[in-house]
Design brief:
Helix 1 (about 1-30) runs antiparallel to helix 2, helix 1 (about 1-30) runs parallel beside helix 3 (about 70-90) and helix 2 (about 35-65) runs antiparallel to helix 3 (about 70-90). This protein has helices at about 1-30, 35-65, 70-90. By secondary structure, it is mainly alpha-helical. The longest helix is centred in the first third of the chain and has 31 residues, at about 1-30. About 85% of the residues lie in helices and about 0% in strands. It has one domain (about 1-90). It contains 3 helices and no strands.
Length: about 100
């Protein structure tokens, strides 16, 4: 069980850093005067998606103490792990 807590903390840390990166992007985009429709689409991708995954992982970590929902928490960990490289592939432009 300690491994799952460590794994959840590592996942939350990775997605949390992406949230901070998305916040920085949104602030810089506003300063540069990017049009509103382009800004909202990019903010959704760079800020809201990592934030939602971060919150899912955090809530899964919180409820993983209860045996009845532990398998759901582990499923969320697996989905967040699979989503991370897929997200980063598009995040970096496919390079």
């Amino acid at each position: 069980m300690r491994f799952s807590y460590f794994f959840a903390a590592a996942l939350a840390g990775a997605w949390g850093l992406l949230v901070l990166s998305g916040l920085d992007f949104a602030q810089q985009a506003k300063l540069q005067g990017i049009s509103a429709d382009m800004l909202s689409a990019r903010t959704t991708y760079y800020l809201y998606f990592p934030l939602s995954v971060f919150l899912f992982v955090f809530v899964a970590w919180f409820v993983s103490r209860y045996r009845a929902v532990r398998s759901i928490s582990y499923s969320i960990y697996v989905l967040a792990t699979v989503a991370l490289p897929c997200y980063l592939l598009f995040y970096t432009g496919g390079m």
